[in-house]
Amino acid sequence: MWRCLLPAAFAAGNLGCFATREDVQTLQSDMGSMRAETAHADSARQAQIAAVAGALAQANDTLRGLSARLTKWQGDVRGDLYTVQQELIQIQELTGQSQRRLQELRAGLEARGQSLQPSGMGAPSPLDSSRGAPTAGAPPGGPPTSGTTVSGSPSTSQPGAPTSTVPGGPGPNQLFQLALDQLRRGSTGAARAGFSDLLRQYPNADVAADAQFYLAETYANEGNTAAADSGYQAVVAKYPSSPRAPTALYKHGVAMQAAGNIQAARAALSDVIRKYPRSDEAVLAKDRLRTLQ
């Protein structure tokens, strides 16, 4: 019996061996196909990665170029702003020199006019006072009659002319020049007294706005920022159409920024641009607003 089964088992074993070889060959073929497909996919993926890398490199180059141009543009803008500010400073200095010269001329004209004024039209001269001579228009031995002039006619005053509390005293331009000279010498107290006297005697004079501005400057020079800021606000409130108004309003905005009141500073600087768009301070206000935080 065993002898009969041996050939059959041998045949079945051979058949099993032949089937395993075919499966291995099929598997090897499938694996080869998979390797080929994987290699193809890897090649395509590498091509895609290379394309993406090239695009990124090109984008980086573009960004670097844009960054370099932006940096150059920012540098040019800063340089232009600096140049504009320097030109504004020069213009302000030249304007200030012209205004000072004009003010000196006005003060000189006032002094010359008073020196040429007849003695009977102004205050009595020291010589007359020392001699005890009566002034013109006054009866001997008594004070001058109220409301009369040298000729005895009723006195009249020109409408709109500034009036002084001190008859025959210095005019507004002389008072302003004297006070300004004191401020330049560093005598802020004397300068403040002079400007205050001018504003009290000649509130409607041409130099009243300048006097109010420099009155605030006397406090600023002493470090009294609160009083200086109040003076600047007074310039804007009382003399809004004067050339000093935009400067005073700008300084008020700067003072508010220094005090930490950003909202008030922004409002003041915006008012400078809105109310005085052609002023030099409007340019400075725009520049400060861009950096205001």
Tally of contiguous helical segments: 9
Secondary-structure content class: mainly alpha
Mean pLDDT: 75
Rg is 47 Å
Report the count of strand segments.
Answer: 0
Please mark out the parts with pLDDT under 50 across 5 or more consecutive residues, or reply none: 119-166
Strand content: under 5%
3D shape: rod-shaped
- Rounded to the nearest angstrom, the distance between the terminal CA atoms is 108 Å
Helix content: over 70%
* Biggest sheet record: none
Q: Strand-and-helix sequence, N→C?
A: HHHHHHHHH
Label this structure with key terms.
single chain, 293 residues, mainly alpha, 9 helices, 74% helix
SSE topology:
Layout: H1 2-116, H2 126-131, H3 172-184, H4 188-201, H5 208-221, H6 225-238, H7 244-258, H8 262-275, H9 280-291
Helix pairs in contact: 1-3, 3-4, 3-5, 4-5, 5-6, 6-7, 7-8, 8-9
Explain this structure:
The chain is an all-alpha fold and 293 residues long. The chain has a domain at 9-112. It has helices spanning 2-116, 126-131, 172-184, 188-201, 208-221, 225-238, 244-258, 262-275, 280-291.
